[in-house]
Amino acid sequence: MGAGKRTVKALGAGGPLPALEEDFHAWCVSQANALRARQSRVIDWAGLAEELEDMGRKDRSRLRSHLTNLLCHLLKWAYQPGLRSNGWRATINASRDSIEDLLEESPSLRNILRGLFEESKAYSRAVRDAIVDTDKKVRFPASSPWALDRILDSDFLPDPGE
To answer: Are the C-beta atoms of 67 and 113 separated by less than 8 Å?
Structure first.
């Protein structure tokens, strides 16, 4: 949300429309209603544009988080076979499911996911987290040993040291 406070002065059915910073939910409902009614004079255009951009950033952030978590658990699965657990398997499945759900809701995120994977930030964070989880006892590859399509494959679990 922007630094300045925006208040919509136009009257709605119940009085003044709520300001974005005062009641986000009420603001969203009022803006959706105004859009449906094509009441362009009461639309908070700057606030609406900003919130739409924020939604896109949140999806990207959620995608990176799920990718990082997936990679971290795949690394631990591959490099600590003696410690494998149903919990790790469940986390791997949940991360894949969350990524799949985001991609189903917004197919254009597929290109963003590929970019996130190729920029290696998610992998380097996964390595950092795996190092902490393994008490620095395991040395992990500098870059992902697996292709993106492979880590997203629900049947894929890496062999030891793979």
So the answer is: yes
Quick one: which H or E segment has residue 150? helix 148-152
Find out whether 131 and 140 touch, Cβ atoms under 8 Å: yes
Confidence of residue 6 (pLDDT cuts 50, 70, 90): very low
| Residue 18 structural domain | 11-43
Cα distance between residue 119 and residue 127, in whole Å: 14
As a whole number of angstroms, the distance between CA 27 and CA 36 comes to 14
pLDDT tens for residues 87-133? 999 999 999 999 999 999 999 999 999 999 998 899 999 999 999 99
* Helices vs. strands in the chain: H and E counts, helices first: 6, 2
- 5 within a domain of the structure (yes/no): no
> 50 Cβ partners below 8 Å, 6+ apart?
1, 2
4: nearest Cα among 23, 15, 19, 17: 19
Provide φ and ψ at 155, rounded to 5°: -90, -5
29 and 61 housed in the same domain: no
